[in-house]
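Appendix B. Worked example

We walk through a single record from start to finish. Start with the input: the chain for 1,4-alpha-glucan branching enzyme GlgB, Pseudanabaena cinerea FACHB-1277, length 756.
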Amino acid sequence: MTPTLPTEQIDRIVWNQHHDPFTVLGPHEIEQDGKSVWVVRAYLPDAEAVSVVTPDQNKEYSMQSVHHPHFFECVISDAPHLFSYQLKVKSSQGDRLMRDPYYFKSPLLTEFDAYLFGEGTHYQIYEKMGAHPTEIDGVSGVYFAVWAPNARNVSVIGDFNSWDGRKHQMRKGHTGIWDLFIPDLTIGTVYKYEIKSPEGHIYEKSDPYGFFQEIRPKTASIVTDLNDYQWHDQDWLDNRRSQDPLKQPISVYELHLGSWMHSAMDHPPESGYPAVAAADLKPGARFLTYRELAEDLIPYVKGMGYTHIEVMPIAEHPFDGSWGYQVTGYYAATSRYGTPQDLMYFIDKCHQNNIGIIVDWVPAHFPKDGHGLSFFDGTFLYEPADVRIGEHKEWGTKIFNYKRSEVKNFLIANVLFWFEKYHIDGIRVDAVASMIYRDYNREAGTWLPNEYGGRESLEAIELFRHLHSILFTYYPGALSIAEESTSWPMVTWPAYSGGLGFNLKWNMGWMHDMLNYFKLDPYFRGHNNNYLTFSIWYAFSENFMLALSHDEVVHGKSPMIGKMPGDEWQKFANLRCLYGYMFTHPGKKTMFMGMEIGQWSEWNVWGDLEWHLLQYQPHKSLQTYIGDLNKLLRSTPELYVQDFSQDGFEWIECNDTQNSVISFLRKAEHGDFVLVVCNFTPVPHHNYRVGVPEKGFYKEILNSDAPIYGGSGIGNLGGKYTDDYGTHGKPYSLDVTAPPLSVVVLKYIGEDIGEA
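Next comes the structure step. The output line below is what the pipeline stores for this chain.
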């Protein structure tokens, strides 16, 4: 049989070199002998014989092998219109009926979708890119779309086609997006993209927009449907939209899901999800699933009084030791702990228990793993080609090309995706400084200035402004928290006023000052009082979050209690003092897991927390103290409603370096206030005079030296009345007892003790 098209077109299909196989394969109306006929073509590398079967007409047409033994076609002259058909394939594996993917010619991704993506403003691009179970012309299957503009060819490969890139070759649109609908594929299909570079090199890539991946160390993507979970958190979402989070109490429990607690491999999850081994360094241990964490973690966090959980990155990543910060699947919830629906269940349960969820987001870099974004289509696509702006040498990772619209769209849509599909409440953006400074961790001569000769990354700045202008419009009440370690101005100012647009920033300066201060022997603290007080000079220039994070308890830095001087009693007392000052200082709060129990070891991503320590009273008492700090914060508006206003804070005494005692007021919006007195030495101070603005009774609502917390029991017998003479510029004063290494909080009640 003579082919109905030029043989070079057949060769391009056979050799997998055609950018649009739809022009060759599938049904085509052609003219033959002066009349219109239909020709059906198929390339089936494992077929011995093929027929076209029309179930509606109960007809079968034999296809002939032309030019190549596995390229088949037949001419059908008795069908005036396009008809539905199947291919009957005979091979060494037996006979089978299959639908022809090249019958379904209309792409689901429209020209308008492609235009918005190229412009960088398709905020729901994840609804079109990736793998989506769908139905076309009454036929169920999966629609695939991937951006690889410089690839010579792209194919979908998987178990369903023996990982053979010849069988499901994709079509390239003019914007560089390749697509294909494959009928009869279902949820659970395992797949990758086989990508040929312009030079013909072959790469097998996970789906950048894939929603699920195989459990590491496997790396293929898995088809899933994120719309099949029934949520029960509408009240939470409605309430979030109507509130200003900056005027709410925020106390965040930061944790790594894979090392908070483990179970045993010989006790598999009741949900039926596979038991995933935690690490070779902890033989016999497995990760808890998202559903198990919902049952164990949520009651713990709720009981401790935290308002939010911050999870270290849960987007898919190949290496446990990266803590999740080297992401390969930005749209895929890691399969270490369960399915996407399992994660939805966990977040849903958090919201039903009035706990918010913050997710660490990593737009600063991505790893070089072969299945990931690096050199994705055989060219520098997601990353710049110039290593001076395209690679973090110290980290061994690539930097996103923030200048490219499609890459910016990938990142911005990714944030919106986590809010939309997983109902998260906030993001904590990792390593912001590495993005906004081109010379970050680079020696002179190894970085490329911007177009104006400066060190600022104008592209990354624009990315953040663009992101936040959209995020807070779509999701009022959301949190976006910057881990930004420099003095870059206006990080938490709105984008329209020239800021980066975040609404919170980790206060790295406060953290360093506090740890430098508390590691000192109390004898020397009076000479370093500036560590305590300096933060107030800039506390209201940004919306700060005080964070004691995972970074402070790794890499030989010592656990928190190990940083404290003195004997065991003094170590715990110092720790209570630090935490008490943190919770009364302006700013929202973040603490890493294990800090609440006084863990003696550094955090180990391969292990779990030292829960056995809670059998010992000092550790149990510290845990009780943290719970009470959270309850105090949530019940005391004076400690949170004006965190970011000078009106919410007033020094009483900040220069008593001889005694290492400071005192200050925290104020609510309508005149209510609390007095905080901190003693940073192990020497108690009785009859310590503190000026106050109002006459009456001051009730002691927190004393970190209380016996229930492991303290010595020195205190103020429930509260103090004012004396009618003033000090510190105030008309009245209190005769306060400041216990050793303590924080005492007294709330002004009024002149009538009965009000207390």
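Two observations about the output. Residues 617-635 form the longest helix (19 residues). Residues 124 and 203 are 27 Å apart (CA to CA).
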